[in-house]
Amino acid sequence: MKQLVCRLEFITRAFCGGADPETRVEIRAPSIRGQLRWWFRVLGGFTSLHPISCREQEAFVFGSVAGKDGQASQLQVRVRPMAQIPSTPVRAENLGFGMNSPEGYLLFPMRQKPRAGITQPASWPGFELHLAWRGPDENWEDIQALATVFGHLGALGFRSRRCMGA
Asked: Which of 17, 55, 95, 159 is the most exposed place for a label (fewest CB within 10 A)?
């Protein structure tokens, strides 16, 4: 089994909620797994597995429950915060962005309910991402490349695909 440990930090505010998104921030392995899966699809799969389709590659790497042929994941994802995650309940109005600004547009869902967030990312040391690959060794470089893309371009949290969670 090959293992990779990456230390990741947030560069912007992040609103990562779990079971109680209004009061507690959680960095969750399933969320990161979903982002890795998304980047896998965007990149079109792995070159080392190209004879098979991207969908079959995805089932091989991330597992599948399709039909009667369930398949376990070859990739394990774990998360370990480097320190206590600061949870600050925030409303959109408290961030200082007006209703008609671009930032106000992004924060519109937070006008009704507060969300817990990491509002000062520079003050929190981040988290460790642990990846364990149980598949063939020839795919290990592709797993490392996928982790690198996520680490440099990925995002987590509430509205992360719209800039509030990078």
From this structure: 55
Largest CA distance in the chain: 52
Residue type, 35: Q
Residue type, 43: L
Instruction: Give CA–CA dist 21/23, Å, rounded.
Output: 6
Residue 82 above 50 pLDDT? Answer: yes
User: Do 126 and 6 contact (CB within 8 A), yes or no?
Assistant: no
C-alpha to C-alpha distance for 118 and 134, rounded to whole angstroms: 33
Place 126 in a pLDDT band, splitting at 50, 70 and 90: confident
pLDDT at 113 over 90: no
Q: Which residues pair with 130 in a beta bridge?
A: 5, 78
pLDDT score for 79 = 94
Task: Match 């505010």 to its residue by tokens.
Answer: 13
- Asked if residue 102 lies in contact with residue 90, where contact means CB atoms within 8 angstroms, the answer is no
Question: Which amino acid appears at position 40 of this protein?
Answer: F
